[in-house]
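Suppose you are handed a protein chain with no further information: no name, no annotation, nothing but its sequence. What can you learn? This example shows the usual starting point.
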Amino acid sequence: MTLSLLLSTINTIAQEDVKNRILFIFDASKSMSVKWNSKSKFDISKDMLTKMLDSIQEIKNLEIGLRIYGHLKEYPPQDCNDSRLEVDFLPAKISTRQIKAKLNMIKPRGTTPIGMSLEEGIKDFPDNNARNIVVIITDGEEECDMDPCAVSRLYQRKGIILKPFIIGVGPNAKWKESLDCVGKFLNAEKEEQFTDILNIVISNVLHNSSIQVNLLDEKNEPNETNINLTFYNEFTNMVEYNYVHTMNQYGHPDTMIIDPIISYKLVANTIPPTTLENINIKPGKHTIIPLKTPQGELKIEIDSKKDYKYIIKEAGTENIVHVETINKVQKYIAGKYDIEVLTLPRKKFYNVEIKQSSTTKYIIPSPSNVNIMLPSKGYGGLYLRDGDYLEEIYTFNGDKLTHKLNLLPGNYKIVFRDRYAKKYNFTSERNFNVKSRKTKNIKL
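A reasonable first move is to predict its three-dimensional structure. Written in structure tokens, the prediction is:
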């Protein structure tokens, strides 16, 4: 597909409301004068960029600027400050004429200060109230004492620029590694690839894209919905979009608009969260993203005025998935869990299976009000009796006489010793049982 044909098919809806700025950082270092196929690298790059500018100059809400490096000072000696903004940001139709004229005036002669040019180029943008895009056209790796990858990371995290594009001119697999971390690296190893690569870059720049996230149940049907979806920039780990998933009027997952320049990590904020990484969106295309999120419901019921909490963990682990309040229906990803209800004593359920589109329910007997009145301040504890096994569930710390507790039905034992008693045989014990919804006074 020719560049003109590609651009004639551009859906400009995404550009009607959003300003786009493109800064071309153009390599005019001495190595660009080397012949590459039909002409020098410099002349081929200049010709291709000129044709591309002619094709996009009528696009609305598009501003273009040009920074050039390696064109001011002869190499050697090396001058790592050899970089200058030659055409400031102007509407595409105006800047195209100025950029073409400037490119015709310069000759490749200097060194390759990519990091410095990128940092200064980012400062060329007047503000970050637009899609600020950097396109670097170069044939070499950094030759000065600056890390272009660190520069790119910093300003992407600040939200000043989107992920840059780097167009590598000529066959050189080695320096791809040094520039791949700067942004999206596209290598034109042959002259005829240059146009295709410019097509890709401009398509990314000028298109927003539509996506459809299919939240799949256990039968791989897209029936799950009403889940908050967070799209993270995979490079900066910053949040780019938050959408609450919904179904459209036809019962299909709704279409969302998303910027194709960025690679994403998608987190469906289910319990526990479900994650999909390395999502790349094709510009101008509708992309369907499948994500398996089968859910079922859990409800823990207690007839009590107290809002007890429960902890839910992955079955057989100490990995806490969620903390929830009783008497509330909550959805979880289908699977097996361990549940610990923070009553006194704690009620535990192991290997609880939550199934797709069904409700798992547990009813816990109502607790009772139990007042334990000690003869003096002292130490010891309250134990739950399970046959001959004792589990301490409450401790006396020698600080008060009366302990008001809400206890589940069960059999209990008090073990107590006055804090001033100096012999173990002054320890006393008392067994008692508790029934549901009763008030009980225990005087030791």
